[in-house]
Design a protein that fits this description.
- The chain has helices at about 20-35, 45-55, 55-65, 75-80, 85-90, 110-115, 115-125, 135-150, 160-170, 185-190, 195-200; strands at about 5-10, 40-45, 100, 180-185, 205-210, 225.
- By secondary structure, the chain is an alpha/beta fold.
- It has one domain (about 5-225).
- A 6-stranded mixed sheet has the order 3-2-4-1-5-6, with helices on both faces.
- Helix 3 (about 55-65) packs across helix 4 and helix 3 (about 55-65) crosses helix 7.
- It is globular.
Amino acid sequence: MDNKVQLFVAGVIHQDPLGRPQVQRWLRELLLRERRPPTFVAVEWDKDDLARIVSQRPKLAELAKAQWPNATTEFIDALADAAGYEGDSHATILPSVETVWLDEGREPDAEEIERFTEFRMVKYKALAAGLEKFDLEGLKYMSAAAWNSVLPRVEGTTPRDEKFATRLYTAFGINTSNWAIAILGADHTADSPGSAIDLLIHNGISCNVTNMAPDNISAKQSVHLTGNPSISK
């Protein structure tokens, strides 16, 4: 693997109501800096599963409006658009770039998909606990609450970390375009033994990881991790 190859990684929280604009801002900063499109954008989704989630966004908006009837349109739209945002935030910004579906072939619990809006509303209600105004400031509060709820990652690898690392490594192939993007849950991007990113850097891929937390959404604040190209896959 060419040791000049770099992977720019966005670490996200799936229920973050401001995840989409944060990721999109980061993507635009990257494109301004790199001045050419990436080889691919890898996302933590199966294409068909994401389509089923996207189709439920209107229903999620209805549930949110019923729960918070005094909420602003911006608040309701953000909650709805955050459903599966990590899978399609890049679509309008990089429409011609290949999407690598890291969860392709995954067989989730059918209830996980069918009752997605209900499960997501449970999370939103928890994040909104104590809120009195449901507007942009409320979204910022919920976003911070989502990130503050993250528990430290338990060291060691998981089957999904291994799968993601393998698929990302394979996606580069012999391409010498030098850079690509991945959007993954923060657990998989952690600087922790056994995470997907840890596995990649130990197989020669240089990674720049940026968590999409509210106060850390600039590409300039990313952490550069250099892989050891002498270690084989």
